[in-house]
């Protein structure tokens, strides 16, 4: 055993190993930079009218109302099939989404709703201790990965619940690895006038969101890559 | 609504709502005697308090001999009806409650809960107050706000519109403009 190990190391000299690591690292960095560069550009598709599979991450209360307002304004036949995700402890949001989907289905004369509704574990509930939240964060990340592997959306719409961060990070990694190219749209909630939310700040600074929208001009002046779109409520 | 006798005074309701939160400071401020006096002076006849999960119980009053009629409840599925029948709404700073009231075109005072840890909610109330769509107050200066407010100076709020953002998203994804 000892001999073979030595032999192995003699073939791969330390210099060679280090060079390999540096090359791999450089390739990864270049790929990440390329993905960031490409993400900011308009999407060029060969079939511009083809619908895109869409993931909608719902928050609670006001967040959901804002997101459903955006959805109502988007062309439903362009963003299909749709998948909704909300926190496992939040039943109201999915209920509201189901109501919207039912009205869409009724308008187009379809009996069955084609959209899917899923729930995701939250990494940390309000008031949970930090010690146990290490474990729950791991669990939530694994769950997010499992959901994203199943959905592999082309478009992601989110507006601020903490649950959208792991989902968007995974979507970004999918782009880097080449599993699925997706466009990530982040809409900051109307309640944020002067400062971004933590989720928003992360996705903005890490350049994970392809397009970043804010509702107040004050916020746009502070974060110049964001687009000011006016109030949604 | 119609009352008999010489008290055919028009009902003017002030509706206080804390939503699903616990905001005893607001309920206590609304229950204060000087605030009720101020409301009476301004011609309001009824005060209805939705107290949510709070533990402070306001004092009920039938509103005899010209005093303010006070009533309260914890939760109700018909908040929208109460908002509609109100002449003045005093609300916590939740965005749902704010925009629902503004859409109904009701005069609104938003009271910011300073006990909340991450108090970003005051940002929205202050911005909308700066734009003269509502008054923004704290529990301790609510009475003063009511005494000094001029509801005529409030501007109606035009509900938001999602078409600009929809246009940007569609364009980014290469969908042709409609």
Order the strands across the largest sheet of chain B as they lie in space: 3-2-1-4-5-6
**Low-pLDDT stretches of chain B:** 1-6
Output the radius of gyration of chain A: 21 Å
Q: Sum up the overall morphology of chain B in one term.
A: elongated
**Main sheet of chain B?**
6 strands, parallel
Query: What would CATH call the class of the largest domain in chain A?
Result: Alpha Beta
Helix content of chain A: 40-55%
Level-1 CATH class name of chain B: Alpha Beta
Percent of residues of chain B in beta strands? 5-15%
Give me the oligomer status.
Answer: heterodimer
Give me the strand/helix succession of chain A.
HHEHEHEHEHEHEHE
Helix/strand order of chain B, N-terminal first = EHHEEHEHEHEHH
Mean pLDDT of chain A: 88
Molecular shape of chain A? globular
Query: Structural class, from secondary structure content of chain A?
Result: alpha/beta
As residue ranges, the low-confidence spans of chain A are none
CATH architecture of the largest domain in chain A: 3-Layer(aba) Sandwich
Q: CATH H-level name of the largest domain in chain A... which superfamily? A: Glycogen Phosphorylase B
Keywords (chain A): Endoplasmic reticulum, Membrane, Transmembrane, Transmembrane helix
InterPro entries (chain A): Oligosacch_biosynth_Alg14
Transmembrane segments (chain A): 16-37, 130-149, 169-187
Subcellular location (chain A): Endoplasmic reticulum membrane
């Amino acid at each position: 055993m000892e001999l073979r190990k030595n032999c192995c190391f003699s073939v791969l000299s330390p210099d060679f190993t280090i060079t390999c690591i540096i090359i791999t690292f450089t390739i990864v960095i270049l790929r990440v930079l390329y993905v960031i560069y490409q993400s900011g550009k308009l999407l060029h598709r060969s079939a511009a009218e083809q619908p895109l599979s869409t993931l909608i991450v719902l928050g609670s209360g006001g967040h959901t109302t804002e997101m459903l307002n955006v959805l109502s304004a988007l062309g439903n036949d362009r963003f299909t099939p749709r998948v909704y995700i909300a926190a496992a402890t939040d039943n109201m949001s999915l209920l509201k989404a189901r109501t919207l989907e039912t009205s869409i289905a009724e308008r187009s004369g379809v009996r069955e709703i084609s959209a899917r509704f899923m729930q995701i574990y939250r990494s940390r509930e309000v008031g949970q201790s930090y010690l146990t939240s290490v474990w729950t964060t791991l669990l939530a990340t694994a769950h997010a990965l499992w959901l994203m592997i199943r959905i592999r959306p082309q478009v992601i719409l989110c507006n601020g619940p903490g649950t959208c961060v792991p989902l968007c990070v995974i979507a970004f990694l999918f782009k880097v690895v080449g599993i699925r190219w997706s466009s990530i749209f982040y809409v900051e909630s109307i309640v944020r006038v002067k400062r971004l939310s933590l989720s928003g700040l992360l996705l903005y600074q890490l350049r994970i969101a392809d397009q970043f929208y804010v509702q107040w001009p004050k916020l746009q002046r502070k974060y110049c890559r964001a687009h000011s779109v006016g109030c949604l409520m | 609504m119609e009352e008999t006798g010489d008290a055919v005074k028009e009902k003017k309701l002030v509706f206080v709502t804390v939503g699903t939160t616990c905001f005893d400071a607001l309920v206590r401020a609304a229950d204060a005697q000087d605030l009720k006096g101020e409301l009476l002076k301004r011609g309001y006849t009824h005060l209805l308090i939705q107290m949510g999960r709070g533990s402070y119980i306001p004092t009920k009053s039938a509103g005899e001999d010209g005093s303010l009629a006070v009533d309260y409840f914890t939760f109700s599925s018909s908040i929208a009806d109460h908002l509609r029948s109100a002449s003045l709404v005093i609300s916590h700073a939740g965005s749902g409650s704010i925009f629902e009231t503004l859409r109904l075109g009701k005069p609104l005072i938003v009271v910011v809960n300073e006990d909340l840890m991450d108090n970003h909610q005051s940002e929205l109330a202050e911005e909308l107050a700066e734009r003269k769509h509502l008054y923004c107050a704290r529990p301790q200066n609510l009475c003063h706000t009511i005494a000094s407010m001029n509801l005529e100076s409030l501007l109606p709020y035009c509900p938001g519109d999602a078409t600009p953002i929809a246009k940007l998203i569609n364009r980014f994804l290469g969908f042709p403009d409609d």
